[in-house]
Design goal:
With 237 residues, the protein is of the alpha/beta class. It has a single domain, classed as Carbamate kinase (3-Layer(aba) Sandwich). Strands 4-3-5-2-1-6-10-11-9 form a nine-stranded mixed β-sheet, with helices on both faces. A two-stranded antiparallel sheet has the order 7-8. It is globular. 43% of the residues are buried.
């Protein structure tokens, strides 16, 4: 299986990974598939935290297009991430993993409130910690929440799982001649305005020297990234 390069990591997932062909809702078998990707990582005794988005349930920009207040749209998105977190928790636990969901907005009936020291203790005990409800604040994306939580728990790397195999100079879905980068500095990524992660999250990682790896979640890519294989795009100093 090989040795893990990272002791503790945060995995950022798009909510779209839980959606079926319709692109909407939660497909339990897809949550189970994600659980299977995590098994070999945990077998390497790596501590794993997860942040998942809400795009399969709610996109704030849809509300904004109809005149919805930004803060309201963002809070709805935060609640949607909690639904995804619970669905993922269920799949992981059915696959034999011990998990905890912590939320930035208190909802004690379904999850723990986010407490940094408690989250770290869960990780030290081998539990997968899923962070829901973003940062608990409007105007911040789940990418930013992932960067923030990664630094709070002293993660060594932020893994951004996507449906493309790295960062490109233009959209590879639209341009077959798009160029993929093996490595970018934070400044280069910011200047390019890469769509794979928002500028606030990138700046936060840059200020705290947290490396980001953008990769395609397929096959055994997650385990290979954790072992240090050169997959996707590394964004660092």
């Amino acid at each position: 299986m090989g040795e893990a390069k990272y002791r503790r990591l945060l995995l950022k997932l798009s909510g779209e990974f839980l959606a079926g062909e319709s692109g909407y809702g939660i497909e339990p078998e897809l949550a189970e598939w994600i659980a299977e990707q995590l098994k070999p990582v945990l077998a390497m005794e790596v501590e794993v935290a997860i942040v998942i988005g809400s795009g399969n349930i709610w996109r704030g920009k849809d509300g904004l297009e109809h005149g919805m207040e930004r803060a309201t749209a963002d809070y709805m998105g935060m609640l949607a991430t909690v639904m995804n977190s619970l669905a993922l928790q269920d799949a992981l636990e059915r696959a034999g993993m011990i998990t905890r969901v912590q939320t930035a907005i208190e909802m004690r009936a379904v999850a723990e409130p986010y407490i940094r020291r408690r989250a770290i203790r869960h990780l030290e005990k081998g539990r997968v910690v899923i962070f829901g409800a973003g940062t608990g604040n409007a105007y911040f994306t789940t990418d930013t929440a992932a960067a923030l939580r990664a630094m709070e728990i002293d993660a060594e790397v932020l893994l951004k799982a996507t449906k493309v195999d790295g960062v490109y100079d233009v959209d590879p879905m639209l341009n077959p001649n798009a160029r993929r980068f093996d490595h970018l500095t934070y400044i280069e990524a910011l200047n390019m305005g890469v769509k794979v992660m928002d500028s606030t999250a990138l700046s936060l990682c840059m200020d705290n020297d947290l490396p980001i790896i953008v990769f395609k979640l397929q096959g055994d890519n997650l385990a290979r990234v954790v072992r240090g294989e050169k997959i996707g795009t590394l964004v660092s100093r």
